């Protein structure tokens, strides 16, 4: 089954394909195709190239750089971008804090932050998870106590991706410790990471990288005008943000590209091994179902409300990423255990093990898959 496009949408797809393959620097696209870890400079350069073409943040309101595209066209944008090995716009900016500020921020916050966020003049970090509040995010304890025209913030965040690059961090803090429900009493605060009292400490991961960090706040003074929306309503804004994040975490386009590459890497083995051929066919069918779900979620999210079906998408999409990375590692065999070019193995095998290990976390970040099952059971199935 394939999407049947109108002539207008087919022309739109062709325009996107030309843009992505001609306007985003080749050295960045080559790095993505080789599954290399991009530098901060490469990620910023790529997003600014998209912004120069007016397509970096199509999900934003039009007055702040968004595009009034249909859900199908937003899907085509994602698909063609990933098929061309163009890195997705930095999610903390484009898919997380940007839409929250656009939807709930004051006019002053919008003017101050949205243009700089779109152009990556500010690199945002996400301060949600804590040592005792990961999947159970509502148990967070980082406090923000009002002191005149400032909040004084104390606490710790963990698993903060790319915090070593962060200029600002959007943070969930507890402003009312006596709220009757733990989801209440939480606020959404923007914090300059250069403020005295903010400390970033890297965490070494199983794949050898250090893209996540701990962030500590010790008597950090934050102006009250950096509050997004209303005090003690941060949980509502977090649900809005996480709905957007879970759609992106599914990574449909990138998984489709990698599965297509895996078929070519399998070569003659694919024709000789019926079990391998059946496994790839099964993955392709499942991936098609996830792709159609992503279109449905985008369509049902057009009113800006959190879409419970995004949990289905996150659950299925993250598991699909893991399955395809496992397939690639199986194809690479022992060659996938060495990242040393001197070993003489084909280039595609070298990131196989590190990619497999890195993606073990896909079923945890953005809300663990166990939590997604609970959301599906309560919000969709009514159990």
CATH superfamily of the largest domain: Butyryl-CoA Dehydrogenase, subunit A, domain 3
Major sheet attributes:
4 strands, mixed
- Provide the number of structural domains: 3
Shape: globular
Written description of the protein model:
With about 375 residues, the protein is an alpha+beta fold. It folds into three domains: about 5-90, no CATH class; about 125-230, Butyryl-CoA Dehydrogenase, subunit A, domain 2; about 250-380, Butyryl-CoA Dehydrogenase, subunit A, domain 3 (Up-down Bundle), CATH 1.20.140.10. About 50% of the residues lie in helices and about 15% in strands. It contains 13 helices and eight strands. It has helices at about 5-25, 25-35, 40-50, 70-85, 90-105, 105-120, 235-250, 250-265, 270, 275-300, 310-330, 350-360, 370-380; strands at about 125, 145, 150-155, 170-175, 185-190, 200-205, 210-225, 225-230. Strands 1-4-5-8 form a four-stranded mixed β-sheet. A four-stranded antiparallel β-sheet has the order 2-3-7-6, with no helix packed on it. A hairpin with a 2-residue loop joins strand 2 and strand 3. Helix 5 (about 90-105) packs antiparallel against helix 7. About 40% of the residues are buried. The mean pLDDT is about 90.
Per-chain topology:
Elements: H1 7-23, H2 26-33, H3 40-52, H4 71-83, H5 91-104, H6 107-118, E1 124-127, E2 143-147, E3 150-157, E4 168-174, E5 186-192, E6 198-203, E7 212-223, E8 227-228, H7 234-249, H8 252-266, H9 268-272, H10 274-300, H11 309-332, H12 352-358, H13 369-380
Helix pairs in contact: 1-4, 4-8, 4-10, 5-6, 5-7, 7-11, 8-10, 8-11, 10-11, 11-12, 11-13
